[in-house]
Hints:
Helix 5 packs across helix 8 and helix 8 (187-205) packs antiparallel against helix 9. This protein has a three-stranded mixed sheet. It has a two-stranded antiparallel sheet with strand order 4-5. Mean pLDDT is 83; it is low at 20-45. The chain is built from nine helices and five strands; from the N terminus they run H-H-H-E-E-E-H-H-E-E-H-H-H-H. It is mainly alpha-helical.
Amino acid sequence: MHxxxxxCMHKLFITLFLLVFIDHTFAKFQSLKSEFxxxxxxxxxxxxxxxxxxxxxxxxxxxSLKGRELFITIxxxxxxxxxxxxxxxxxxxxxLLTEGMxxxxxxxxxxxxxxxxxxxxxxxxxxxxxNRGRSSKKxxxxxxxxxxxxxxxxxxxxxxxxxxxxxxxxxxxxxDREAEFLxxxxxxxxxxxxxxxxxxxxxxxxxxxxxxxxxxxxxKFIAPTTILTHPEPQCRLDTMIAGALCPMSMELDFxxxxxxxxxVEKYSRPSCWLNKVKEP
Length: 280
């Protein structure tokens, strides 16, 4: 009798656990945002979102990819905002985004594209390059600051030049007005600066100490040596703003793998991460 009661209680517990797990999983996918602001209802839709991003970037950067296929994947189990770029075993480049990044309340469609553009920059932004681990040998990957500059100076502008659906600014937040002022009302630039501010705020939230970012107050830090890892969020925002404001940046030869910078000095990569003093 007692054994039967235990078995029934055990089955009831398992049933309740499964119901709670299914309900949590369904609610989790319901909360995920698609590029158009809709709610994702199931895993098939979320997989389609990854395919959609992959298709968009493969079409837009076919020349840079030189026949290779870029894979963009999403980790729906990671709640921390993050993204990274690497290579698959067959040598194909891939970019991974986490749910925490995609579903962050500050992230917009342009902000998500900017994050992907930054990761793409690790493949295509040129010098300076990151180091391999703790050694002085250079990696295949462009430095974080260089990837930020590529993202706003080239990648986002190329995407928007091919996007005829979104040509207006649909928000009236204070920082959006500041972005519009910085860009002299130019819509494409304003969208990039808006996205950069959102992404920089997300980066700031990941710090273990309070960090503020501003569209109008630049970083005062001067890097004694070039920072190849992640600069501070304000420095990263300054870099992305410089890229957005750089005129004729679409003509920069990032593909040459050289040290590409804006030809207009005041919109060049900032000294908060790049040491501009040439070594003798």
